[in-house]
Specification:
It is built from 5 helices and no strands. The protein is mainly alpha-helical and 120 residues long.
Length: 120
């Protein structure tokens, strides 16, 4: 009987960890989506881009616990390209990479959704 309760406790801890991780990733993805939209405004772009870079440096290791390296590497590359386009004052490239940032954020969300597509 002790084994049953121990198994139930471990299952509850595992389920709690999964739910906390899902909440964290959804909050992170919401922040990233809002930041990608805020980058469209040219007046506060430098500050927003700096916030995004700091956020990514701080949270990358936590996000990497559940998100694949393909998405993480792509996200990091896009941030570097955004900084380059901003510093070079290349508006068309900046917009291109801003849209790619929104796309990779969608991929992060999609990879954590519970769906038949993700199971197989």
């Amino acid at each position: 009987m002790k084994a049953f309760w121990a198994s139930l406790l471990l299952f509850g801890i595992l389920l709690g960890g999964i739910l906390c991780n899902a909440r964290y990733l959804h909050r992170t993805a919401d922040y990233l989506e809002k930041t990608a939209q805020a980058l469209a405004q040219a007046d506060s772009r430098d500050e927003t881009l700096g916030e995004l870079e700091r956020f990514w440096e701080k949270n990358q290791t936590i996000i990497s616990l559940t998100v694949g390296f393909r998405e993480l590497d792509r996200f990091g590359e896009i941030i570097v390209q955004l900084r380059w386009a901003h510093d070079a004052e290349n508006e068309s490239e900046f917009e291109r990479y801003r849209l790619l940032l929104a796309d990779v954020t969608e991929e992060i969300i999609r990879s954590e959704e519970f769906s038949i597509k993700n199971l197989f």
